Amino acid sequence: MKILYGVQATGNGHITRARAMNQAFKNNKLEVDFMFSGRKQEDLFDMEEFGNYACYQGLTFITKSGSIAPIATLKKSNIRQLYRDIRALDLSQYDLILTDFEPISAWSARAQRKNSVAIGHQYAFGHKIPKAGDNFLTRLFMQYFAPAKVELGLHWHHFGQSILPPIAQTHSKPLKVINNKIVVYLGFESPEDIIHLIAPFSDYIFYVYGNFGEDIINSSSDLPHIKFCRLSRETFKEDLASCNGVISNAGFELSSEAIHLGKKILVKPLAGQIELL
Fold this sequence. Notes:
Blueprint: E1 2-8, H1 13-27, E2 31-37, E3 54-56, E4 63-64, E5 67-68, H2 70-76, H3 79-88, E6 96-100, H4 103-111, E7 116-120, H5 136-144, E8 150-154, E9 163-164, E10 181-185, H6 191-198, E11 205-210, H7 214-218, E12 226-230, H8 233-242, E13 245-248, H9 252-261, E14 264-267
Helix pairs in contact: 3-4
């Protein structure tokens, strides 16, 4: 069986889940090609395990000061290119299309009448589960952004529905917990806002991960209890395993990893994100 696996790459959570899935594919000797959309290829990191993967513009959202910027998001969206990519993607060599909320693979599968399976947190919202701020537009978005013939929702509880538990990839070995160590991943916040939030708490050591430039990395010397770290899956997993708490934007995958490891979590949801309404 040959599989095409489409992954939403706007954030790192979907990619993290794809890493866990990729290990399962290898263990079962399945032939899988990967494609990612929602972020420029040069902004992706630690992608060697996915081999000769494809990368598309897809659809993503623009953020500003911890909130989704709707107008900027609409300006950034290139629906014409999305349509072209859907039409141009040739699926004839594949027996199955998997999509992790990735629209190009999902809609190409529908257009070419290929067997398709979707997996992800977003698909849990198609079931009767507790929701806040639910409305017609959010339901429409969730239903048609990346549809598939079979949709497998992931959530922390099944609510009596056909919902699977999270797929969490954590450090393979238990590490000693450092009581005052906090991992911070606020990918939609500016470094200045992050510093403003955590600088007063000098009794803790904060390991702040993000796509930072050299100026931000070097600024750690001015605040010895704040360490800015480059994005790296392996070092992040190590710090997550040895920390005592996590501060994040409430992404499903990171929250699932933290819960799996028994870590305390403080979240600042991205304002306007449909999953969190």
